[in-house]
Amino acid sequence: MSILLLRELHEDVRRLMVAGASMAMDDTRLKRALPQLQLLGEKAPIFKRVAEEVSSTTESRPEHAAGKLLDLAVLLQAVLHTQSSTDTPGEVVPVGTTQSRQAGTTITYRKLKPLLDALTLRGSGRLEIIRQGKEEGSFADLRTYFPAVLALRDSYAEIADYVAVHVIPALGKAVIPVLQHAFNRDGNSGDARILIARYKLSDNPEELWPLLSSVAKEAALPVRLSAISLMSDSPHFQKELLELSYSRKKEIREAALNTLSSWTSPEIDDRFMEALMGKDAEFALWPIQVSDSVPLTEKLLDYGRSLIEKSVHDSHVIGVRENLARVLHGLKPRADQPSVIAFLLKAMDNNELEFKGTESLSGEAANLLLHSNDKNALLYLHELRENKAYFIGYSLKAALHIYDSVQVYNMYEGYFTTKKSKYVSDLLQAVYQYAENPLISISFDNQITKSFSWDERWVDRFIDLNEEELVCRIVKTPSEKVIAYLLEKAKVSPQLLKPRTLHIFYALFRLGHRDTPELVLSALELATKKSYYYLDRDSQFIVAMLPNRYAEQVSMIADKITYEYGKNQLKQLAEHIASKPAEFVQNQEGAEFLSWIKSKLS
Amino acid sequence: MTELTAAYIDSLALNAGAIKNGNDLVRKSSFQKLCCTEDGTLLFGECKGSGKEPYICSADFIKPELPVFRCSCPSRQFPCKHILGLMYAYASDKPFAVEELPTDIADKREKADKRDEKKKETIAAPASSESKKKVNKNALAKKLAAQLEGVELAHKLVLQIVQTGLASLDKRSIRMYEDQAKQLGNHYVQGLQAAVREILILAVSAESIESIYSEAAEKLASIHGLIKRSRDHLIARLEDPEKPMDTISVLEEKIGHAWQLSELREVGRVRNDIELIQLSFHSYADEARGEYVDEGFWLQLQDGEIVITRNYRPFRAAKHMKEEDSCFLVVQTKDLYAYPGDMNVRVRWEEMTMREPLPSDRTAVRSFAEPCFAAAIKAVKNQLKSPLADKNPVMLLHAAQLAHTDSGYALIDGQGDRLPLATINRLKDATMELLPILDQESLIDAAVLVMFEDHIAEGKLVAQPLALVKERETIRLFY
């Protein structure tokens, strides 16, 4: 009771400090406490002192009130500091997990603090710190767990994704309680990441299935979407997903359809077809493409036929073309199936894919047939050029699949007489697509298209047509004519180091032309004279092909560059050239050379 | 010699960048020469730098408690990355050629020995030097008078704030008060100045002025108490010039005195042959002082006293000063200088060696944990009631259990007494969130380092756990 009085008094003192000590004179609340304090003061001297301070505060002149008020505050604080309680009522519940713990707390402050700041604060350069921390094993420290989970909500998605993919899985099961604690179903995309992380770490995912079901139905949108994607784990979700695919939110419908493509069943096929025919046609396409369902192919074909039928009866039916285009897209991964090939051949033969006033779908169909790898289909395309000249590009491609390079040359060379002829641009387009671009295939390991061999006679033909890049692409054996042609072409502003120049240099290197290094060097020297910054990957590659003895010259060119980055880059390149293993000097086309050069280039 | 472990070398580096750069030199094999003397007291080598000539660096452990580093590079960071790299190379068992002691180092060692002897002489004969160090009485009187003036100035400032009320603090008045606080700098009362500025900074940084009323009011009262004590002390010293400085309480430091080690030695505040083990670490920016503060909380292995190291780095010079790090090794020092103060005194050392901690150290630490909360709380309250006292005492308690109750986490001692745990304003970072992910075994029968805070308005004394010491390991909940 008496402590309560002092606490109230302390509150009044605080109030007066806020309002200003000049108000303390005759303050009614202070005065009201006085008699009680005096009464208590008879028993305990401390209250007597408080009472004295209170009365001297209220009685002092306004200009002295501040000092008195502070005296009273000092006294009250000293007393109250000894009176604070440490009561902690209630039942005692043990904390901690029953699992054993691996992580310790042995990372030093100077390592830990920047990492925790990177995970929890804002600003630039954080991802790098987090990456470094991961590499150094700093996440083995328990104190990173909460900040790491917090980082799943980072507004900078790259950090959140990095942590989700690399950090949280490495923390292991010990982080599950933290994830559980942090998860808020009504949250945002961070909670979606938390849900996925938690599910993937779980030993016993079945336990979380009820949660997935409920979250998929009601939660924040990103969380729902992640739950729906996780449902692909168990076929028993099929029914729920079918229901969700009718949701009012289109994102949910899309996610549900996508997840449904993990399985095949008549219900799912029907739902896909229903979606394809309805307003969700766009969403239905991807699941249909990835679905393994065999009956679905027939359903697509049936739908395609019905659409064709409609358009035959009435060529103005709205949307038929779009729907038919979707059917063709859906058939793409199924192009090797006989029924599909038959359908396409028939449709093309009967001109059922031509639409008045809009773009024809025959091109799409021809593309599908090219993908089918079916001999008859390819033959059909090859012969199509005779009836429908505008298909000649496809015919050439098909021919490349069926015949050898000499045959192809003999059959198609005649169409490449002059650039002015009607469909030559289609043909050239086809050649560009099917002739390998050597520089691109160096930069990107994967060869996107199957490579076809080309008859050497094409080189002359392309020189006549002045298609320098095609010449560069397919030329294999040196001849006076081709070298002269390329050298002539290389004279056009080599200092710009444009892709075309690089193609020519690479071709000359491959043909073993002796003066190529000099050409490259002089181009490089010219290039570095004017506003030069750095070399792109292809240019670096070409420079790196220079033989060892040119290292010093490259280094000298580098010395003249003023821009620091470009200078260092070229210097480094010179070092690489100097250190190039001898076996590559002769053979710069082998896979070993390519992997060596790739390891060196920045 | 201290064993050259990576952890020890890390602790010598000024900052994390230096650690990385030092290691990079080793990784890139930038050292053209790595040598050591036969007795292993000197490491020296040559390191490739950006210049033509390599840098010549050495680390001399002839006095293991005070290693001497030398490098010919122009870096302002010291020890530079070359010296660190040299030691990292040694720690990672790179081959070191055994060579004769270079003559220049031998000369330098000789000179250093002579210097040391001189120093020892002066320390050994304090009586005779007393006359030499005789204080200029006039100067002292002048300084005390200036300080007193400063105290009155601070007093006026505080009264002014209270007179007009905290509610009337606005940008303009705060600026005016700040100008006045600046004047305190001319009166040798840096401590008081910082205390006043703390309130002003609190008012500026607050999102709403209402949120800081309680804290500011408490602080004003504390300053008021400090001013009164300072005034009495200074007047007494002015009247009696023979009266010594206050070497018991923190008063001198709070007024603004920076104790020098020689002064501490003179007044007998040196402890001999001490081993310290760090239990927690805290680094923060003290805006009022304009300095970063690196605080280490240590336990003296001899008697279990909890002491604090404080390393101040002025914002302006922070780049070139050593950023302290948390320390996991045991520090051994012949002379530990203890500042005047109460519960957790500030300590410093000049020379030290380090050793790996042993399991027996943890046993010793645990044996010093206070098993009775009632006694601990009494001691804390006793300290808190003094207006000068540090409001956040740190103690090592023995908890039978860390548990959850209706009002949050709590420590429970052997008698079933409880101490509520909470995140305190002083630290701001939560540490209790780690408790649920610790294994249950770690949370029983643990020595717990806690920092107290009294929330006077709510009438609640709470503590925040900083570290748990178990037989097997130390778990640092904070840094």
From TrEMBL, chain A:
<dbReference type="InterPro" id="IPR016024">
    <property type="entry name" value="ARM-type_fold"/>
</dbReference>
<protein>
    <recommendedName>
        <fullName>HEAT repeat domain-containing protein</fullName>
    </recommendedName>
</protein>
UniProtKB/TrEMBL annotation, chain B:
<keyword id="KW-0479">Metal-binding</keyword>
<feature type="domain" description="SWIM-type">
    <location>
        <begin position="55"/>
        <end position="91"/>
    </location>
</feature>
<dbReference type="Pfam" id="PF04434">
    <property type="entry name" value="SWIM"/>
</dbReference>
<feature type="compositionally biased region" description="Basic and acidic residues">
    <location>
        <begin position="108"/>
        <end position="122"/>
    </location>
</feature>
<dbReference type="GO" id="GO:0008270">
    <property type="term" value="F:zinc ion binding"/>
</dbReference>
<protein>
    <recommendedName>
        <fullName>SWIM-type domain-containing protein</fullName>
    </recommendedName>
</protein>
<feature type="region of interest" description="Disordered">
    <location>
        <begin position="108"/>
        <end position="130"/>
    </location>
</feature>
<dbReference type="InterPro" id="IPR007527">
    <property type="entry name" value="Znf_SWIM"/>
</dbReference>
<keyword id="KW-0862">Zinc</keyword>
<keyword id="KW-0863">Zinc-finger</keyword>
